[in-house]
Amino acid sequence: MEQLPTVEETTASADFIIPDSSTRILTDDEVNTLDQNTARYALNEIYARRGRKFKDQELQNYFNGKSWYVGTIEPDNFDESSLTAIEKENTKKLDLRRNGKTVTAGATLPNAGYIKYFQDEYIKLGHQDVHTGGGHIKAMYGKNLGYGVNVYGRIYDRGDYYEFVNINLYTPYLYDSKPTDYMVEKTSEEDHDDYHGSYQLSNGKWVIYGDSDSKHSYVFYTGSIYMRKDAVIYSGRYSEPYEYKAYKLKDIIDDLSYGYWEISVYILELDENGYIKTMANQEWG
Description:
This protein is of the alpha+beta class. The chain is built from nine helices and ten strands.
């Protein structure tokens, strides 16, 4: 039988290993000070608060002895989505620790599945030099400028980052051959005569580009993308490029989080985890 966790208990927290693990995100350092067994009980304490029962009889007996525990949900019926963002983050950290791993920065961040596309030259060339934005932005970011993003879904605060759901990442539509006059004409009509041209990529593909209308774009990823909380969004008018200004994402997040409207932005910069650091937005606001 495993030894039950031994912790210093105060009167206020006599029945808990970590009394506030459901109301604040635990630091990496404090989780790493726990031994594996204590981390195991601390992890399941979060589930127990939610009324989950346990298949492991030792765990069940342990929580049955707690004055606050009321087990009403069978293990197979427990819905993980009932956990808050804070609880989900803490369960990830405690699960790493109970398995003997050290929690490090970024260890519990979800995988940015779209990062592989940004490392693919075929995709990267799609928007290169099409949208120039402000002159100073192009000078700063050069060839990185141009991964298109349609933001029209919900934005969720995940503790250390924001999750944007229902996102399309796109480049202009890619053609196998040089566009015909008919193709160009149709693009111009559908883009309300806002047609700019076509050009050939280094991989032999061709693009027709008009305005930012996604009808002429190639969507290469649909799903969630992740934003750092210190991310910056450049906003301004293309006709007055030097009026582009940098805003902290957190300063405009309330306006975007309602999900009632759409903005089109361009991803400029990612961090080592594939989380977005910098974006540019034309005609925003």
